[in-house]
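Appendix B, Record 12. Input sequence as logged:
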Amino acid sequence: LYTLNLEKSCSEILEKLELLPQGVQRSLPWKATANANRVKEDVRPIFWSNRPRSYVDRTSEWDEFPNGRWGRSDSPAFGDLSDFHLVGIYSKGKPEKRRKLWGAELTSIQDVNNVFCNFLKGTVKTLPWCEKNPNIETSLILDQLTSLNEQGILTINSQPRVNGASSSDERVGWGPEGGFVYQKAYLEFFCNAEVMQLLWNKVKDFSSLSMHSINKNGQSKNSSGKSTSTAVTWGAFPNSEIKQPTVVDTQSFEVWKDEAFALWSAQWADIYEKGTKSREIIEKIVDSYYLVHIVDNDFINGDIFAIFKAIGFLAE
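Logged structural output:
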């Protein structure tokens, strides 16, 4: 392929045709777009990591894009991230295809848990919040994630902690060669109110953890008590300033929750007839579950799963 513009468009074509060789170095931890107006963009909130097309659509009218640092998400230059574009929400294939993926019939919430587990195992190819299979770095924490999902802690985004791995590392590497990359462990999931309260009762015992929970109606609790923006991925490279391409941003999370909850209804509940038990199970999740994210700020010796051990969901 030849191009007179950005190479990203050619790369995307080759990737979709599965013609790219394995192990190709990622320029960023998230999938960049081929749009020439976004060529300098190098910072995004982590929440849309598995739905990059949605994020690009939601920010398509921005005057400028974050470069070097996230800054204030309410800055006029960044436009209005809260403009809720529904493109992509209702276009995830025919209902028959989705029923084959996520279940022709649900008899209990455990059936939903099983779908999430099968996604981690690779037998379910997509979820409403994840456009493709888990990233290869997920293999580093796969056992813990699977155990949590089996018990109803439904994970939709995660990353392991990384302390100075080579930028060429096959699982966690990104950016130019000769660099070193770092990550704070991150976990985002849906859970019921009982589990959410257990976590809030324990999080004060883990000084390195930050936590934020929110439900469909916007009832929100943040361990920092204020709006913050925190880099959770960064890298140091030769002849370059420190790059911080992924952040956890309080305001962005409160915007993302609208999309996250809407996906339950628009892509999953909608495949079942009204009044059926299958649909009622999904609607119960939408109405009663919380969306939660946890960040472990100790990227050197931290264990983001320790809090789940403390509440009895993982073995010591």
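The longest strand covers residues 229-236.
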